């Protein structure tokens, strides 16, 4: 199953990379039309007639809503930035930083703050301020060197080199949006697909925790209810016991 995920992930990344190559020479805003976060980032602008932004916004909202029932599979299978982070972290063969759980929880709040900021900027039609930091825009069209460009590149490629999926875990506002919808779904007791841990055969080896890119404390649960789970299935693939996780 993990091999199937990697095939889907690589194909999606290839399509995203081609889109950037094709659209980047046209104009700076063209690439962002295909970003699912455009649903939030561009706010009321998407209501100005039927455009690519409208289609992307609808898809972005539908993807986010789907997390209520299926979790954040988009992040583990489709997201261009998520895959880029995964590739880049694999280049680090030596010094990898493990963040303590208390600090992990504290840093995780950053993405919710960014989500609120981008939401308000969009409502007041000031999204151009956030777009200077937008990684999709920066990767597609390198704006003149400045604070915004350096900040985003450092987060993606320096922090992402030492800390697994740093952007996904701590910074991504779309991840925050999906998590908020999952919390709402949980409040309404909507049933969600989850990876299950078999207590009866588990030998407490902690392989699942060590290999989880989102650093979820899998050993604490019978069902992996954590909203940050991206269903990468690394926990399942590295479990030494048959049907220990499924």
Biggest sheet statistics: none
How would you classify the helix and strand content by structural class? mainly alpha
Assembly type of the chains comes to single chain
What's the overall average pLDDT, rounded?
88
Approximate strand percentage:
under 5%
Cα distance, first to last residue? 10 Å
How many structurally independent domains?
A: 2
Shape annotation = globular
- Note poorly predicted spans: none
The helicity comes to 55-70%
Which radius of gyration do the C-alpha atoms yield? 18 Å
SSE arrangement, N to C: HHHHHHHHHHHHHH
Number of strands: 0
Number of helices: 14
Structure description:
This protein has about 250 residues and is mainly alpha-helical. It has helices spanning about 1-25, 40, 50-70, 75, 80-90, 100-110, 110-125, 130, 135-140, 145-160, 165-170, 175-185, 205-210, 235-240.
What's the gist of this structure?
The protein has 246 residues and is mainly α.
Structural key phrases:
246 residues, Alpha-Beta Plaits
């Amino acid at each position: 199953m993990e091999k199937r995920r990697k095939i889907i992930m690589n194909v999606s990344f290839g399509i995203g990379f081609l889109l950037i190559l094709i659209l980047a020479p046209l104009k700076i805003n063209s690439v962002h039309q295909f970003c699912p976060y455009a649903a939030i980032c561009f706010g009321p602008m998407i209501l100005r007639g039927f455009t690519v932004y409208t289609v992307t916004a609808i898809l972005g909202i539908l993807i986010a809503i789907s997390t209520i029932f299926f979790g954040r599979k988009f992040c583990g299978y489709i997201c261009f930035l998520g895959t880029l982070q995964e590739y880049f972290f694999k280049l680090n063969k030596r010094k990898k930083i493990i963040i303590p759980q208390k600090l992990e929880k504290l840093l995780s709040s950053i993405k919710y703050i960014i989500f609120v900021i981008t939401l308000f900027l969009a409502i007041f039609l000031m999204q151009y301020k956030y777009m200077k930091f937008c990684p999709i825009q920066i990767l597609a069209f390198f704006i003149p060197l400045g604070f915004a460009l350096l900040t985003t590149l450092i987060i993606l490629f320096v922090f992402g080199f030492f800390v697994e999926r740093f952007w996904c875990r701590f910074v991504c506002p779309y991840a925050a949006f999906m998590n908020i919808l999952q919390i709402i779904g949980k409040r309404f007791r909507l049933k969600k697909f989850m990876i299950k841990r078999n207590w009866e055969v588990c030998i407490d080896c902690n392989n699942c925790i060590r290999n989880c890119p989102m650093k979820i404390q899998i050993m604490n649960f019978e069902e992996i209810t954590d909203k940050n789970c991206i269903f990468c299935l690394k926990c399942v693939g590295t479990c030494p016991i048959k049907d220990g996780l499924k």
